[in-house]
Write a structure and sequence with these properties.
alpha+beta; Nonspecific Lipid-transfer Protein, Chain A; 6-stranded antiparallel β-sheet; 22 strands; 562 residues; 12-stranded mixed β-sheet
Length: 562
């Protein structure tokens, strides 16, 4: 597959990086289209696996059109024209993104769908940064108390993937002289109603000081249970939180409460950053049930959907600090009895262990099922997060809540009864990229995955062995999935049930690549002949799994240990 570096090298042959930045827009558009349309090797093994049937692609690079036809034994491309009946249309929408892509910039991309079910890839522009006056609180939790942040927190407080994306930020008139100052004063004077029950609850027994720095204009606010005060033109010393916006257009959008796509993030000093998502690529499928992961088979597409971090080897490129934190998530086989757990479903036993020890438990709706409008499973049977770090999550009431241990166990029972596959462990990106809170080793997650919507399932279907938990390249150690070939009659029930599309029929018998199989156990449950089984190699593997999971994340109350 063509990677970012290969694309960039070809552009470098066309011009130097400096020359590329000065090229007219039309040449840049045509340059990208030419690189995308270039010939591919149809004899390559990946090509042969990917295109057993004809697949048609329309391309629109900011108005410059072309198409591709992938056939099992032939590849056809043409610029200047479009197909009437393409399987997918890819429309590049942002010339700055194209230049950055070709120049090898590290472009952070997020994905979602708009209200018309069109997939959108978005780059993130910095909108707001925060600075905390104390490390005892989280910026999201404090911002959730401020009425002006209600629309933003509903955008990013629980998941960047859930809510439908807009096609792009709504147009606003240019920022006029003195306008930011006027809007700030209006915001400060109309900020709160101290008689409101929500205000009283948010600031009961608490004083919150907020500093603002918007396009060089400063102000401060003091929120407390019995009153509210503000000062324009002055900051307070040692404020609980300082909020900074440098871009005046983004500031105007925020102060006027114009709906916008937002995303959270963290900087190297653990300050909360908020980004505005700018759509750069739209993807329209003929079949609305297709997912963006199906495009991973296209020779050029991985360089588009992933960060362009290959780049040109320039002196100014900084070496990124390696994150040493360990990601470890594992799928637990459903309905597997074993040893002392002979009469207990193993996934329940593992989850129960951590639920009983957890200092805080958050239950939330499933972002994957919400995103894909799941027809087969209830969206309420979603994620479970545990540990002290989850206390920093800002949740809107319709998406999640802090749960009791009894509620968590009931949630677990319902999810398993619904046939969902349990996934448990630590994924740093879940906390920091998905929820905008720092993972300090006290953020532990559990997912309940379905075959139709789960992002981990979808990535494995097209990009195996990719997964949600770093290092998860297969099943748990300690057991093996086996097929009794005398019982197997090749009925393909297991093939139709495997959520990862990994089972195949070889010589009339069921088979699976053990390097890619995660061992969810769905095939064991559905085989009508009892031909598939799990052979236990290590009877202590469940206890070892619990020990391993405890080594990557601590869910206990840390105030007791300090």
């Amino acid at each position: 597959m063509i990677q970012s570096l290969l694309i960039i090298k070809e552009v470098k042959n066309m011009s130097t990086k400096e020359q590329l930045s000065k090229l007219p827009d039309d040449k840049v558009k045509k340059g990208l289209l030419k690189l995308i349309l270039k010939n591919v090797d149809v004899s390559e093994e990946n090509y042969q696996k990917s295109f057993k049937e004809t697949y048609k692609v329309n391309l629109d690079v900011c108005g410059v059109k072309g198409y591709q036809i992938y056939e099992p034994d032939k590849y056809i491309s043409k610029d200047g024209e479009s197909l009437e009946d393409s399987d997918v249309t890819l429309m590049f929408k942002d010339i700055d993104h194209i230049r950055g892509l070709l120049q090898g910039e590290n472009i952070d991309i997020e994905m979602g769908r708009n209200s018309k079910n069109v997939v959108l890839l978005n780059r993130k522009n910095l909108f707001m940064s925060t600075r905390m006056g104390t490390d005892e609180r989280n910026a999201q939790v404090l911002m959730a108390k401020l009425p002006i942040f209600d629309p933003i927190l509903k955008n990013f407080g629980t998941s960047r993937l859930v809510r439908p994306l807009r096609d792009g930020p709504e147009f606003i008139s240019p920022v006029e002289k003195g306008e930011i100052e006027s809007l700030m004063k209006k915001m400060l004077s109309e900020a709160v109603d101290i008689t409101d029950e929500a205000y009283k609850k948010n600031f009961q027994g608490q004083v919150l000081t907020v500093n603002w720095d918007i396009d060089g204009k400063i102000a401060s606010q003091i929120f407390e249970e019995t009153g509210y005060n503000y000062v324009f033109g002055k900051n307070t010393e040692n404020a609980d939180i300082t909020i900074m916006i440098k871009n005046p257009e983004y500031a105007k959008r925020f102060l006027q409460q114009i709906p916008t796509n937002y995303a959270p993030g963290l900087d190297s000093d653990e300050n909360l950053l908020i980004y505005i998502k700018i759509p750069v690529l739209s993807i329209q499928f003929k079949n609305p049930d297709d997912t963006v992961y199906s495009l991973a088979r296209l020779p050029f597409f991985r360089s588009v959907i992933q960060k362009s971090d290959s780049g040109l080897p320039t002196e100014e490129k900084k070496e990124e600090k390696k994150d040493e934190r360990e990601n470890y998530m594992r799928t637990i086989p459903v309905n597997l009895p074993l040893g002392e757990y002979e009469n207990v479903v193993v996934p329940y036993k593992v989850f129960e262990h951590f639920i009983n020890k957890a200092s805080n438990i958050v239950l939330r709706t499933c972002p994957c099922r919400e995103r894909w409008d799941c027809k087969n499973h209830d969206v309420s049977l979603g994620c479970m997060f545990m540990g002290d770090d989850t206390k920093n999550m800002a949740l809107s009431p319709d998406e999640g809540y802090v749960a009791t241990k009894e509620q968590a166990l009931e949630h677990l029972k319902n999810a398993m009864a619904d046939g969902l596959v349990p996934l448990i462990g630590r994924n740093v990106a879940e906390a920091e990229d998905g929820h905008g809170i720092r993972d300090t080793g006290k953020f532990f997650g559990g997912c309940f995955c379905c075959e139709c919507c789960c992002i981990g399932v979808k990535t494995r279907q097209y990009v195996a062995p990719s997964s949600m938990g770093g290092g998860d390249s297969g099943k748990l150690e300690g057991w093996e999935m086996k097929v009794d070939y005398e019982k197997c009659d090749g009925c393909e029930t297991c093939i139709n049930t495997c959520p990862y599309n990994l089972r195949i029929i070889i010589d009339g018998k069921s088979s699976v690549d053990p390097a890619h199989c995660v061992g969810c156990g769905r095939c064991v449950d559905v085989c009508p002949n009892g031909a598939i089984s799990i052979d236990i190699e290590d009877p202590e593997y469940i206890d070892k799994l619990i020990t391993k999971l405890e080594s990557v994340a601590d869910v206990t109350d840390q105030t007791i240990n300090n």
